[in-house]
Amino acid sequence: MNISVIGAGAFGTALAISLAAKGPVRLWARDAGQAREMQERRENARYLPGIAFPPGLEVGADFPQGSEHAIMLLAVPMQQLRGVLNERAEALDGAVLVACCKGIELGSGAGPLSVITDTLPGAPHALLTGPSFASDIARGLPTALTLAASDAAQGRRLQERLSTRNIRLYRTTDVIGAELGGALKNVVAIGCGAAIGAGLGASARAALMTRGYAEMQRMARAMGARTRTLAGLSGFGDLVLTCTSEQSRNYRLGLAIGGGREFDSGITVEGAATARAVAARAPDLGLDMPITDTVVALLDRRVTPADAMARLLARPLKEE
Ligand SMILES: NC(=O)C1=CN([C@@H]2O[C@H](COP(=O)(O)OP(=O)(O)OC[C@H]3O[C@@H](n4cnc5c(N)ncnc54)[C@H](O)[C@@H]3O)[C@@H](O)[C@H]2O)C=CC1
Ligand SMILES: O=C(CO)COP(=O)(O)O
Fold it and tell me: Does ipTM surpass 0.95 in this model?
């Protein structure tokens, strides 16, 4: 099973570096100039400066051709996934597609695997998600992630093939739970960053994390996921990582909002679109998602973090 990684950003490059220690990996970058530069310098200077590529890693701008059992890791931002699949449908034919993105598509409300089944029906697919920063993976630091596949046998094969010296994979067949865990934690992380950025304190962050987690479970249950999945790496694990580390872009966007600062709109922040997608979907599911709604209001700069927190505190008192 040869492995290609589609998308040479931080995460795709990090996965390619880690996997290349086990065997050859091809990393596809859409920009030919950048691909050439990376291949020559043996480094992704833009996203992972200072981390040398291992010999087994080849970078190129020619899209890899799928073959029976080839594995293609799709490491592009969630809102770009459908476009890439549509554009490259022919080349992807026959390959096992592993989505590596976290989020919910605006407009459709679909997660990464639903987008795959929508655009390429019948393609074997799985999701790689869970707590890990690209730079940690690329530097060989230890991580544990979730490999979700509804086909259990496929999940076992991928778990074996994609585990590396520093990526320990746990598997699940609960693809909806795994998708939602990875998507929703980013929304909570923006809220937590805003609370800390506005100086509201660590206790406020703990409250947001815990009640945000309750929202994640509520939505997961309504969509048919197992709540146990949310207690695992792709939910609780990733929530803890993302809501407490300045390595997280979602958390950093929140810090900027809380501190009244601008944030570079070119940086991938999956939680922003996901918050809007979730807020739009929740009423149809009969769900109350006050923290998600608050994050959308913060993103739109309709409330200040202090007012947002005051409103959350003023909600009717209830049982935990
Ligand atoms: N960076 C991290 O630590 C982690 C990221 N992820 C997830 O991985 C996904 C990708 O994020 P990053 O790699 O961090 O983002 P990034 O911003 O570092 O890189 C995104 C890459 O996708 C490429 N891209 C964007 N649109 C494209 C298109 N239409 N066709 C081809 N290539 C396109 C960009 O050129 C760029 O190379 C996200 O869903 C993110 O949540 C998951 C775990 C960790
Ligand atoms: O998903 C991640 C950690 O698991 C990366 O977080 P950010 O996208 O917020 O940087």
Answer: yes
